[in-house]
């Protein structure tokens, strides 16, 4: 895999790449690669998209992404108090730690060994994307430090130990949809355009003909195309993006629920409450109270 990173910690003589960076190697673009990818956001904010799901991420987030799985990161250079008016701008620095490893380099015979059952389960689960839970994340960060300084003969055992530590906890699946193969290049381009337009405009009305026009399709063809590639309708996806933003606002400020509703792109408070509870299992007010306890 081409090295896009600013500072490579370990590459020569290794079966993996461990790197620190202040930019993501494929920012704002759906892409996939042969390597399993572990990414730790030291600092930064943005949206991560995989399969049928988009999730807001921030400093402290750790994600494992399966080999050959299409995904997209959109990190924000700035944070705004009001996204619609771009009022209250503050800069959001980005710092990433990433690990890339091609599991095929282990060989099919090795992976088929019964001792690797847990590892194989992890490789399969990672096709949906995994949030690494807090307790395990600290262990993984410690193992990454060991891996950084390991001698050549120690690297592979240390890498396998790290992956098995993640596998023991299993993590939290991000997408309901397990991706089995990469998108075609045209799909990567089209879906990147759709997702980025949505992330930049979710807080206002998005008409079907406008989003379809982004990839030069008529609305009916667009609806069929989007659902066939993601497993969701476009408006189901749009609601997910809006609810993710609403959750962020509820965590970060004291604005009224009506204000959060409006700033997240909903025009009806009843619909907002209904969709919010469908996605989170709780009401907006209960969500804020629980988060701040």
UniProtKB/TrEMBL annotation:
Keywords: DNA-binding, Transcription, Transcription regulation
PROSITE patterns per the UniProt record, alphabetical: HTH_ARAC_FAMILY_1 (PS00041), HTH_ARAC_FAMILY_2 (PS01124)
Pfam families from the UniProt entry: AraC_binding (PF02311), HTH_18 (PF12833)
Lipoprotein among keywords: no
GO molecular function: ATP binding; DNA-binding transcription factor activity; protein kinase activity; sequence-specific DNA binding
Residue ranges annotated for the HTH araC/xylS-type domain, each copy included: 192-290
Protein name: Helix-turn-helix domain-containing protein
Species name: Pedobacter frigoris
Source species taxonomy: Bacteria, Pseudomonadati, Bacteroidota, Sphingobacteriia, Sphingobacteriales
